[in-house]
Design goal:
With 421 residues, the chain is α/β, with parallel strands linked by helices. The protein is built from 17 helices and 13 strands. The structure holds alpha-D-glucopyranose.
């Protein structure tokens, strides 16, 4: 008995010591999400930063989905934990993160960034709380080789042209590829669906906020939602899993795997499509998204911004990491290797960047007209309501006009609740 007690004591002591030894050394923690290939590049940046500065950094790999990334950050922030010290934020979280007091302000001037973007999302209550790492806008990707083969002179300017081209090519390709689709886009119940809906609505002349009030139940918005639902159920040129599964990566993989003619995605998909191992490399083109007759093409403004946690225990090192990530050299490399649209303006003037990414020039105009999502501290609550109703319409459970009516009523209730505070 006595001997076993001694053994147990020794074992406990051993475990305790091992536990002490395994304590991670003091290091900065940086939370980043994205496609696996993007995260590999981030790991490389972080390693280089550590070599240059002697500051150890642990990179927390987050998923691609914006909703999941936000959840992953809310837990440590709501409990005032020091880690992660630095993180990337979706443009639509900034109002909430700032209003919650979770971000450490920057004091330096930020002349090298787009002033419109800084004013719209990074400055709150006169303080600069984040800096743009990349600026996103929705784009249409198309298979140039297939348009040529079927005798189309160029990508579609209107949604009706997109449907017509998609139908022809889909019918033709199906004889050899039964799983081929005309158009893939993000329709799952998450933030990406809001982005897809907003730009189609804007391309019909619609908007969701007018004079500070939500106005979902409008003819142009109904037209947009009915159109998107029809792509899945009536034409059909978009797959049935559009409303259950299609997020950025699922859509990118379908197009990159040669299973679609058109794709709606963000600029990051370009570098992946053009990678040497990609079956669609050299066959892909980029165009502004189509519009309805008499209206203009629209793109939702997205992007990821870097910020420092108010609870960091190493603010100086965190600032150094932010300076590194937003430096000209790193931003240029992100553009060249990841196809991202940098947050810094000066990278767009770099001759090498312009030569290797000629579409950046074309994109500059897209950013000027990009449609921003409402900048509200309770945006997530509004977005969740809207995601649910838009998705129910896409699934065919509720007629589009009914879905928008219900969304309007619920969003008014959410807005009233928050305005009282
Ligand atoms: C992209 C955009 C982001 C948007 C998200 C939706 O990551 O940059 O702003 O919210 O897609 O899926």
């Amino acid at each position: 008995m006595k001997r076993s007690a001694v053994w147990i004591l020794a074992l406990c002591l051993g475990l305790l010591l091992a536990g002490c030894r395994q304590q991670p050394e003091a290091r900065l923690t940086f939370a980043v999400g994205g496609a696996p290939a993007e995260l590999d590049v981030w790991e490389e940046f972080v390693r280089r930063f550590s070599v240059q500065t002697g500051i150890a950094v642990e990179m927390l790999r987050q998923p691609t989905d914006s909703n999941q990334r936000r959840q992953g950050l809310l837990i440590p922030l709501k409990s005032s934990q020091a880690d992660p010290d630095v993180f990337l934020m979706d443009v639509v979280w900034l109002a909430q993160f700032s209003a919650s007091g979770w971000l450490l302000p920057f004091d330096e001037a930020a002349a090298e960034f787009f002033p419109r973007v800084l004013d719209l999302v990074d400055r709150h209550g006169g303080e600069l709380v984040a800096l743009p790492v990349n600026v996103d806008a929705g784009l249409l990707y198309y298979r140039q080789d297939l348009l040529d083969r079927y005798g189309f002179v160029g990508p579609p300017a209107t949604w009706a042209e997109l449907v017509a081209q998609a139908r022809t090519v889909q019918t033709g390709e199906r004889s050899e590829h039964p799983g081929f689709w005309g158009y893939v886009w993000q329709g799952a119940e998450y933030e990406g669906l809001i982005c897809n809906f907003l730009e189609v609505a804007a391309s019909a002349g619609g908007e969701i906020v007018e004079d500070g009030n939500f106005v979902l139940d409008r003819p142009a918005n109904r037209q947009a939602l009915a159109f998107l639902t029809g792509l899945i159920h009536d034409e059909p040129i978009s797959p049935p899993n559009t409303f259950t599964q299609m997020k950025e990566e699922e859509v990118r993989e379908a197009f990159q795997g040669g299973r679609a003619l058109f794709e709606r995605n963000w600029p990051y998909a370009w570098a992946q499509h053009q990678a040497p191992s990609s079956p669609v490399a050299g066959k892909t083109g980029i165009a502004p998204l189509p519009h309805f007759p008499g209206e203009e093409s629209a793109a939702t403004l997205g992007g990821w911004h870097i910020g420092i946690s108010r609870y960091t225990d190493r603010p100086e090192q965190a600032r150094e990491l932010v300076r590194y990530v937003t430096s000209f050299a790193v931003q240029k490399e992100m553009a060249l290797r990841l196809g991202w649209n940098p947050g810094r303006r000066d990278v767009y003037r770099d001759p090498q960047v312009l030569a290797e990414l000629p579409y950046l020039e074309q994109l500059r105009g897209i950013f000027d007209h990009a449609v921003a999502r409402p900048v509200l501290p309770y945006y997530t609550q509004v977005s969740q309501v809207l995601q649910r109703h838009l998705n129910a319409a896409l699934a065919g459970w509720v007629p589009p006009e009914e879905a928008l009516r219900q969304a309007q009523a619920e969003i008014e209730a959410v807005t009233a609740r928050y305005r009282l505070h």
